[in-house]
Each structure stands twice: as structure tokens, then as C-alpha cells.
Amino acid sequence: MRIGEDRYEFTIPGELADGRYWCTVTFTPSEGAAPVTDRTVRLDMPFGTGLVASPEQLADELHVPLPLSAAQRETFRTALEKAQAEVAAYLQRPLVPVPQTLRQVAPTPFFALTDPRAWPVPDVDDAVKVVSYELGADDAYTVRLLIGLDAAAEAPIVHYVIAHAAERIRSGPGGEEVAGGGRRVSSVSAEGQSISYEAAPAAGQAGALPTLDSLHTYRRRLWRPLPTAAASPWPYGGRRRFTRW
Question: What are 71-84's pLDDT values in tens digits?
Fold first, then answer.
């Protein structure tokens, strides 16, 4: 069911096991148009775990075949949680938005109903996304919002979390077995008693791990009026439109 612009609601059976599913979605773009079928929709279950990336996405990064075992899933979840905690501590804000519902509200004129500025949002200093809106019998709206940073929809944050979680697993105990070989081998001695590995790319080079500084634009900035002294009366102050100087 379409609940908003580019947003659809599906009923998923509750007995689905954890893992990756490929779905087929059929929808009608407009009245009288032929139905369109999309077979590229990918779902990594379960939802609502508080992670910005799924264990399956981390498995793709590590070239680990699916489906994952229970032990692999727990290992990947732990690595993602630790990498995500680093990002949350640096940004000083949670990475999962908080749902909130506004009831009996009226929209502000001249704004689209999908625009957060159309509604009396309680926190104007944070990111706000309109999930859905519904007109009631009394001509008032019920609006569902997501307030806060939705890190799962921000590619730089997802890339950082996946890359550092993968590196944590590679460099951990048994990482070579888990990550399908781990680091790249550059040379092996004739007797096979010594192995040399390729050096990791330095920060800023192509293929290097992203740094926390690359996420500085996501840090929340609070705007507060600066305290100022009261202006002196004219002609010494600037309260009137015209002054002598």
C-alpha cells in the first residue's frame, strides 16, 4: 500500500527466518497505466534492530557466502555495533531516528504535505522526515514523523560502519578464516616459513578505510541567539532607522 512519496507498506509474515530475501513488487504508477513489476527489491531481515547495516551487507564486504550461520550472524552483529558506537560517539547523536505522531494538527499553507515545514514539528533543530499523513473526519491530520538522523539512509555512514566492522573482523582472532583469507599476501618464502602481506593504503588514498573526520557534516549543530547588551537610545544607539552616522 502506498503511504507516501516513494514509500510503500508491506505485510511480512512473522515466521520468516533471519536472512536475505528477494521480493517482487507490482504497482500501478498512475490511473489507467499498465502495472509495473520490480524484482530488484532486496530485504535483509529482521528490521528494527537498531543497526545501520545488516550482517548480510557485512558478509558481502567480506565475501562470505550466504546464508549466514547463527555464530556468523552474532559475530557480524557485534562488529557492526562496535563500529556504530564509534560513529555515534563522534557525532554525539544517535544514529536511529525516533518515531513521533502528531494528532489533530493542521498544515501550514504553501508547503507540500510531505515537507516537514508544513507541520508543527516539536524539534526544528534536528532532521525530520514525514512518513505518512492522514486526514480525519474533523478535517484535522494525523502525521507520523521520524525525528533524528536516519543513518541507515546515509551512504557515507553506512560505508564507514561496514568498512570498519569488516576490518575489525579481519584483524581479530581467526579473521583470515572468517573473512575468506583476510589480508592479501604479497610474497611467501620458498620454505613457506614466512609470509609478507601487502601494506594497507594510507589515509586519503583510494581503498583506505574512511576516517571519522569524513563524517563531520553529520554532527548536529544547535543554533541559539547570542546574548547582546541593550542598545542605547538614539542618537547613540541603532534602534531607529536613521541616525546621524
Answer: 999 999 999 999 99
